[in-house]
Fold:
Amino acid sequence: MFRNRLKSIRFINTNIHISKMAKSSFEYVKSYELDDTLLPNTWIVVRIDGKCFHKFSEHHNFTKPNDLRALKLMNYAAYQVMKDTHDICVAFGQSDEYSFIFNKNTAFYKRRGAKLLTTINSKFSSSYVFYWRKFFGDEILQYPPSFDGRIVLYPSAENVIDYLKWRQADVHINNLYNTAFWALVLQGKLSPVEAEKRLCGTVSADKNEILFKEFNINYNKEQEIFKRGTILLKLQVQSDIIKKIVTAITDIHEDMLKENFWLKYENLLEPKSKKVVHYNGPITDILTEQILNRDKSKQCNSIKIS
Structure:
Protein backbone atom coordinates (compact mmCIF):
# COMPACT_ATOMS: atom_id res chain seq x y z
CA MET A 1 0.00 0.00 0.00
CA PHE A 2 2.88 2.35 0.91
CA ARG A 3 4.59 1.48 -2.40
CA ASN A 4 1.41 2.26 -4.37
CA ARG A 5 1.08 5.62 -2.66
CA LEU A 6 4.75 6.37 -3.40
CA LYS A 7 4.24 5.49 -7.06
CA SER A 8 1.22 7.83 -7.22
CA ILE A 9 3.23 10.70 -5.72
CA ARG A 10 6.07 10.11 -8.20
CA PHE A 11 3.56 10.01 -11.11
CA ILE A 12 1.99 13.31 -10.03
CA ASN A 13 5.38 14.96 -9.55
CA THR A 14 6.53 13.71 -12.96
CA ASN A 15 3.41 15.14 -14.63
CA ILE A 16 3.89 18.49 -12.91
CA HIS A 17 7.53 18.52 -14.02
CA ILE A 18 6.60 17.67 -17.63
CA SER A 19 3.83 20.30 -17.60
CA LYS A 20 6.27 22.96 -16.37
CA MET A 21 8.85 21.88 -18.95
CA ALA A 22 6.29 22.03 -21.77
CA LYS A 23 5.20 25.48 -20.74
CA SER A 24 8.66 26.89 -20.25
CA SER A 25 10.52 25.04 -23.02
CA PHE A 26 7.96 24.97 -25.83
CA GLU A 27 5.72 27.96 -25.30
CA TYR A 28 8.16 30.14 -27.24
CA VAL A 29 6.53 28.92 -30.48
CA LYS A 30 3.61 31.26 -29.76
CA SER A 31 5.94 34.18 -30.53
CA TYR A 32 5.80 33.17 -34.20
CA GLU A 33 2.09 34.04 -34.41
CA LEU A 34 1.48 37.27 -36.26
CA ASP A 35 -0.51 40.04 -34.62
CA ASP A 36 -3.51 40.38 -36.94
CA THR A 37 -5.55 42.73 -34.76
CA LEU A 38 -7.60 44.92 -37.10
CA LEU A 39 -7.51 48.69 -36.91
CA PRO A 40 -9.86 50.15 -34.29
CA ASN A 41 -12.64 52.58 -35.12
CA THR A 42 -13.18 51.11 -38.59
CA TRP A 43 -15.96 49.08 -40.17
CA ILE A 44 -14.99 45.48 -40.78
CA VAL A 45 -16.40 43.89 -43.93
CA VAL A 46 -16.08 40.13 -44.32
CA ARG A 47 -16.92 39.00 -47.84
CA ILE A 48 -17.14 35.35 -48.79
CA ASP A 49 -17.36 34.12 -52.36
CA GLY A 50 -18.14 30.73 -53.84
CA LYS A 51 -15.16 28.95 -55.39
CA CYS A 52 -15.76 27.53 -58.89
CA PHE A 53 -19.52 27.95 -58.45
CA HIS A 54 -20.03 28.05 -62.20
CA LYS A 55 -19.15 24.34 -62.31
CA PHE A 56 -20.91 23.70 -59.01
CA SER A 57 -24.17 25.12 -60.39
CA GLU A 58 -23.91 22.94 -63.50
CA HIS A 59 -23.24 19.79 -61.49
CA HIS A 60 -26.26 20.50 -59.29
CA ASN A 61 -28.70 21.48 -62.04
CA PHE A 62 -29.22 25.11 -61.03
CA THR A 63 -31.97 26.81 -63.00
CA LYS A 64 -30.66 29.46 -65.42
CA PRO A 65 -30.34 32.41 -65.22
CA ASN A 66 -31.40 32.36 -61.54
CA ASP A 67 -32.15 29.50 -59.19
CA LEU A 68 -34.42 30.69 -56.41
CA ARG A 69 -33.54 27.65 -54.29
CA ALA A 70 -29.85 28.50 -54.40
CA LEU A 71 -30.43 32.14 -53.53
CA LYS A 72 -32.70 31.23 -50.62
CA LEU A 73 -30.10 28.76 -49.35
CA MET A 74 -27.42 31.49 -49.48
CA ASN A 75 -29.74 33.82 -47.56
CA TYR A 76 -30.53 31.16 -44.98
CA ALA A 77 -26.85 30.38 -44.42
CA ALA A 78 -26.16 34.11 -43.99
CA TYR A 79 -29.09 34.34 -41.57
CA GLN A 80 -27.50 31.58 -39.46
CA VAL A 81 -24.25 33.58 -39.38
CA MET A 82 -26.00 36.80 -38.43
CA LYS A 83 -28.10 35.06 -35.77
CA ASP A 84 -24.97 33.80 -34.02
CA THR A 85 -22.89 36.98 -34.47
CA HIS A 86 -24.67 39.89 -32.85
CA ASP A 87 -22.11 42.51 -33.90
CA ILE A 88 -23.08 42.23 -37.58
CA CYS A 89 -25.29 45.23 -38.39
CA VAL A 90 -26.06 44.43 -42.04
CA ALA A 91 -25.36 41.67 -44.56
CA PHE A 92 -25.78 41.71 -48.31
CA GLY A 93 -25.83 38.78 -50.69
CA GLN A 94 -26.08 38.05 -54.38
CA SER A 95 -25.40 35.03 -56.55
CA ASP A 96 -22.66 33.06 -54.70
CA GLU A 97 -21.28 35.84 -52.51
CA TYR A 98 -22.19 37.42 -49.18
CA SER A 99 -20.83 40.47 -47.32
CA PHE A 100 -21.09 40.90 -43.56
CA ILE A 101 -20.57 44.36 -42.07
CA PHE A 102 -19.59 44.52 -38.41
CA ASN A 103 -20.38 47.41 -36.10
CA LYS A 104 -17.64 50.01 -36.09
CA ASN A 105 -16.69 49.40 -32.45
CA THR A 106 -17.01 45.62 -32.39
CA ALA A 107 -14.68 43.74 -30.05
CA PHE A 108 -15.72 40.35 -31.43
CA TYR A 109 -12.70 38.01 -31.05
CA LYS A 110 -10.75 41.12 -30.01
CA ARG A 111 -10.88 42.18 -33.69
CA ARG A 112 -8.44 39.42 -34.68
CA GLY A 113 -8.67 39.13 -38.46
CA ALA A 114 -8.00 35.40 -38.83
CA LYS A 115 -10.52 34.54 -36.11
CA LEU A 116 -13.21 36.72 -37.65
CA LEU A 117 -12.69 35.49 -41.20
CA THR A 118 -12.47 31.78 -40.39
CA THR A 119 -15.43 31.86 -37.99
CA ILE A 120 -17.74 33.60 -40.48
CA ASN A 121 -16.58 31.50 -43.41
CA SER A 122 -16.82 28.15 -41.60
CA LYS A 123 -20.25 28.95 -40.13
CA PHE A 124 -21.56 30.00 -43.54
CA SER A 125 -20.05 27.02 -45.39
CA SER A 126 -21.25 24.44 -42.87
CA SER A 127 -24.73 26.00 -42.83
CA TYR A 128 -24.86 25.88 -46.64
CA VAL A 129 -24.18 22.12 -46.55
CA PHE A 130 -26.29 21.40 -43.45
CA TYR A 131 -29.43 23.10 -44.83
CA TRP A 132 -28.98 21.97 -48.45
CA ARG A 133 -31.94 19.56 -48.38
CA LYS A 134 -34.21 22.20 -46.83
CA PHE A 135 -34.11 24.03 -50.18
CA PHE A 136 -33.02 21.41 -52.74
CA GLY A 137 -35.03 18.44 -51.52
CA ASP A 138 -34.04 15.27 -53.37
CA GLU A 139 -31.30 17.00 -55.38
CA ILE A 140 -28.24 15.24 -53.92
CA LEU A 141 -25.22 17.30 -52.96
CA GLN A 142 -22.55 15.82 -55.23
CA TYR A 143 -19.55 17.25 -53.39
CA PRO A 144 -18.83 19.85 -50.71
CA PRO A 145 -18.88 23.48 -51.90
CA SER A 146 -16.11 25.81 -50.83
CA PHE A 147 -15.94 29.56 -50.26
CA ASP A 148 -12.97 31.89 -50.16
CA GLY A 149 -13.01 34.99 -48.00
CA ARG A 150 -11.42 38.36 -47.42
CA ILE A 151 -11.56 41.22 -44.93
CA VAL A 152 -11.69 44.87 -45.92
CA LEU A 153 -11.62 47.81 -43.49
CA TYR A 154 -13.42 51.08 -44.19
CA PRO A 155 -12.77 54.25 -42.17
CA SER A 156 -16.07 56.05 -42.81
CA ALA A 157 -19.76 55.29 -43.13
CA GLU A 158 -19.66 56.84 -46.59
CA ASN A 159 -17.12 54.19 -47.65
CA VAL A 160 -19.36 51.39 -46.38
CA ILE A 161 -22.40 52.83 -48.15
CA ASP A 162 -20.43 53.09 -51.41
CA TYR A 163 -19.26 49.50 -50.92
CA LEU A 164 -22.84 48.25 -50.58
CA LYS A 165 -23.94 50.33 -53.57
CA TRP A 166 -21.07 48.84 -55.58
CA ARG A 167 -22.09 45.30 -54.74
CA GLN A 168 -25.76 45.97 -55.57
CA ALA A 169 -24.85 47.68 -58.84
CA ASP A 170 -22.91 44.51 -59.66
CA VAL A 171 -26.13 42.50 -59.18
CA HIS A 172 -27.95 44.55 -61.83
CA ILE A 173 -25.10 44.42 -64.35
CA ASN A 174 -24.57 40.67 -64.02
CA ASN A 175 -28.23 39.72 -63.82
CA LEU A 176 -29.27 41.74 -66.86
CA TYR A 177 -26.48 40.16 -68.88
CA ASN A 178 -27.27 36.64 -67.64
CA THR A 179 -31.00 37.06 -68.26
CA ALA A 180 -30.35 38.12 -71.86
CA PHE A 181 -27.64 35.48 -72.37
CA TRP A 182 -29.75 32.56 -71.20
CA ALA A 183 -32.81 33.79 -73.10
CA LEU A 184 -30.73 33.68 -76.27
CA VAL A 185 -29.43 30.19 -75.42
CA LEU A 186 -32.54 28.51 -73.98
CA GLN A 187 -35.23 30.21 -76.06
CA GLY A 188 -33.29 31.63 -78.99
CA LYS A 189 -31.44 28.33 -79.53
CA LEU A 190 -28.07 30.06 -79.90
CA SER A 191 -24.91 28.38 -78.71
CA PRO A 192 -23.17 29.97 -75.70
CA VAL A 193 -20.46 31.31 -78.02
CA GLU A 194 -23.06 32.80 -80.40
CA ALA A 195 -24.98 34.38 -77.50
CA GLU A 196 -21.78 35.89 -76.13
CA LYS A 197 -20.96 37.40 -79.53
CA ARG A 198 -24.51 38.74 -79.85
CA LEU A 199 -24.22 40.59 -76.51
CA CYS A 200 -20.67 41.80 -77.03
CA GLY A 201 -20.60 45.62 -77.02
CA THR A 202 -24.26 46.01 -76.00
CA VAL A 203 -25.40 48.40 -73.28
CA SER A 204 -28.30 47.99 -70.83
CA ALA A 205 -30.85 49.46 -73.25
CA ASP A 206 -29.80 46.98 -75.95
CA LYS A 207 -30.18 44.01 -73.62
CA ASN A 208 -33.60 45.22 -72.44
CA GLU A 209 -34.69 45.58 -76.07
CA ILE A 210 -33.51 42.06 -76.95
CA LEU A 211 -35.41 40.62 -73.99
CA PHE A 212 -38.63 42.50 -74.71
CA LYS A 213 -38.80 42.37 -78.51
CA GLU A 214 -37.47 38.86 -79.05
CA PHE A 215 -38.64 37.02 -75.93
CA ASN A 216 -41.45 39.20 -74.53
CA ILE A 217 -39.56 39.56 -71.23
CA ASN A 218 -40.01 42.81 -69.35
CA TYR A 219 -36.85 42.95 -67.24
CA ASN A 220 -38.46 45.45 -64.84
CA LYS A 221 -40.95 42.76 -63.83
CA GLU A 222 -38.28 40.24 -62.87
CA GLN A 223 -38.21 39.31 -59.16
CA GLU A 224 -36.50 41.89 -56.96
CA ILE A 225 -34.25 39.25 -55.39
CA PHE A 226 -32.77 38.63 -58.86
CA LYS A 227 -32.28 42.31 -59.70
CA ARG A 228 -31.16 43.67 -56.33
CA GLY A 229 -29.89 40.80 -54.20
CA THR A 230 -30.83 40.40 -50.54
CA ILE A 231 -30.21 42.71 -47.59
CA LEU A 232 -30.36 41.28 -44.06
CA LEU A 233 -31.22 43.83 -41.36
CA LYS A 234 -32.39 43.73 -37.75
CA LEU A 235 -35.78 45.46 -37.69
CA GLN A 236 -38.85 45.78 -35.51
CA VAL A 237 -41.48 43.34 -36.81
CA GLN A 238 -45.09 42.60 -35.95
CA SER A 239 -47.27 39.89 -37.49
CA ASP A 240 -50.66 38.27 -37.10
CA ILE A 241 -48.98 35.30 -35.39
CA ILE A 242 -47.87 37.39 -32.41
CA LYS A 243 -49.23 40.82 -31.55
CA LYS A 244 -46.10 42.01 -29.77
CA ILE A 245 -43.45 43.88 -31.77
CA VAL A 246 -40.14 41.97 -31.80
CA THR A 247 -36.67 42.57 -33.22
CA ALA A 248 -35.89 40.10 -35.99
CA ILE A 249 -33.44 39.56 -38.81
CA THR A 250 -35.32 40.65 -41.91
CA ASP A 251 -34.56 39.83 -45.54
CA ILE A 252 -35.45 42.66 -47.91
CA HIS A 253 -34.69 43.51 -51.54
CA GLU A 254 -34.75 47.31 -51.59
CA ASP A 255 -32.77 49.69 -53.79
CA MET A 256 -29.63 50.81 -51.93
CA LEU A 257 -28.53 52.97 -54.86
CA LYS A 258 -31.27 55.47 -54.03
CA GLU A 259 -30.79 57.97 -51.21
CA ASN A 260 -34.31 57.20 -49.91
CA PHE A 261 -32.98 53.89 -48.61
CA TRP A 262 -30.30 55.58 -46.50
CA LEU A 263 -32.72 58.19 -45.22
CA LYS A 264 -35.11 55.45 -44.17
CA TYR A 265 -32.37 53.42 -42.44
CA GLU A 266 -30.28 56.34 -41.21
CA ASN A 267 -29.34 54.46 -38.03
CA LEU A 268 -28.11 51.41 -39.88
CA LEU A 269 -24.38 52.09 -39.55
CA GLU A 270 -24.17 54.96 -37.06
CA PRO A 271 -27.08 55.39 -34.64
CA LYS A 272 -27.78 59.12 -34.68
CA SER A 273 -31.16 59.12 -32.97
CA LYS A 274 -33.64 56.83 -31.23
CA LYS A 275 -35.58 56.43 -34.46
CA VAL A 276 -36.83 52.86 -34.90
CA VAL A 277 -37.73 51.52 -38.33
CA HIS A 278 -40.71 49.16 -38.33
CA TYR A 279 -40.93 46.54 -41.06
CA ASN A 280 -44.26 46.37 -42.87
CA GLY A 281 -43.37 44.10 -45.77
CA PRO A 282 -44.24 40.44 -46.41
CA ILE A 283 -43.57 37.87 -43.69
CA THR A 284 -40.83 35.78 -45.32
CA ASP A 285 -39.73 32.26 -44.42
CA ILE A 286 -36.81 33.62 -42.38
CA LEU A 287 -39.14 35.92 -40.44
CA THR A 288 -41.74 33.19 -39.93
CA GLU A 289 -39.13 30.87 -38.43
CA GLN A 290 -38.00 33.50 -35.91
CA ILE A 291 -41.55 34.40 -34.92
CA LEU A 292 -42.59 30.76 -34.48
CA ASN A 293 -39.42 29.99 -32.49
CA ARG A 294 -40.19 32.88 -30.15
CA ASP A 295 -43.73 31.61 -29.73
CA LYS A 296 -42.52 28.06 -28.96
CA SER A 297 -40.00 29.44 -26.47
CA LYS A 298 -42.76 31.35 -24.66
CA GLN A 299 -44.96 28.25 -24.52
CA CYS A 300 -42.11 26.17 -23.08
CA ASN A 301 -41.38 28.81 -20.45
CA SER A 302 -45.04 29.00 -19.44
CA ILE A 303 -45.17 25.20 -19.06
CA LYS A 304 -42.07 25.21 -16.85
CA ILE A 305 -43.40 27.99 -14.68
CA SER A 306 -46.76 26.29 -14.20
Q: What stands out?
A: The chain has a mean pLDDT of 89. The longest strand covers residues 43-50. The first helix runs from residue 2 to 26. The chain is about 50% helix and 15% strand.
